[in-house]
Amino acid sequence: MNWECAIPGKKGTPWEGGSYKLRMIFKDDYPSSPPKCKFEPPLFHPNVYPSGTVCLSLLDEDKDWRPAITIKQILLGIQDLLNEPNIKDPAQAEAYTIYCQNRLEYEKRVRAQARAMAATE
């Protein structure tokens, strides 16, 4: 089963105004295993692989996944991750490096990305 979702950028963050398309891919054994969550198109973010796949411990069977975790919790966790990257678990070298070395440049790129992915009513 595949779901198409949109994660809005939180107000007061560089992500504000963007609507980020996310595909959730559920295996047949869900909720025993977590869905794969993938931004389409991929985002510039330290915890998003170049393929668009989200790197979040909540979605990792070997880390924090539990069958009781709801879709709402997953989506809110991903929304929180946008503005609060986990620099201990980088998935995208360029975004990680810029985030760590030049926060102003990182936020500039994120704001440009938000404008490019602005929600249309």
Automatic annotation (TrEMBL):
PROSITE patterns: UBC_1, UBC_2
Superkingdom of source: Eukaryota
Localization in the cell: Nucleus
Database matches in Pfam families: UQ_con (PF00179)
Keywords, alphabetical: ATP-binding, Nucleotide-binding, Nucleus, Transferase, Ubl conjugation pathway
Pathway(s) where this gene product acts: Protein modification; protein sumoylation
The keyword tRNA processing belongs to this UniProt entry's keyword annotation: no
Single GO MF annotation: ubiquitin-like protein transferase activity
Active-site residues annotated for this sequence: 55
Domain named UBC core: residues: 1-119
GO cellular component: chromosome; nucleus
CDD domains xref list: UBCc_UBE2I
Similarity comment text for this entry: Belongs to the ubiquitin-conjugating enzyme family.
Name the UniProt record assigns to this protein: SUMO-conjugating enzyme UBC9
Organism for this UniProt entry: Nesidiocoris tenuis
